[in-house]
Amino acid sequence: MSYILLLAVAFQSVAPVDLPALDAAIERCERSAVLPVFAAEARRRSAAVTAFYQEQAQIVAERLATANQRRVLRESPATATPASSDQELSLRQLSLDDRQRALDDQRRLETMRQEALDLKRQYFLTHCPANRKAD
Q: Which of these, 47, 65, 45, 57, lies nearest to 99 by C-alpha position?
């Protein structure tokens, strides 16, 4: 899967939920608005974890390849291909660092989102008992 496609999938998986609207629906015990958000959460989390794992695996593989090329360049500069210049390898490493930072930010945001929804789910369950009707 390409880097751009993975970013799109990962971004979809961490797409923001309207937390203020969810809070308002919880306060009013609007099950029809709240329950679909919570019901879809497990599938969305699974997709997010898969996308994060795939992107991390690609970054690791590319880092290993870059490190190996850098080692070859360092150990035998006369046999290195022109495409494996130190400048090119440095640029590739910078690109990988950017991808890693973006992935770390996405995972951090996903963790915050999961914590928020878990807390809201707990509050909903205590605030809106199953036998209570919305006013």
A: 57
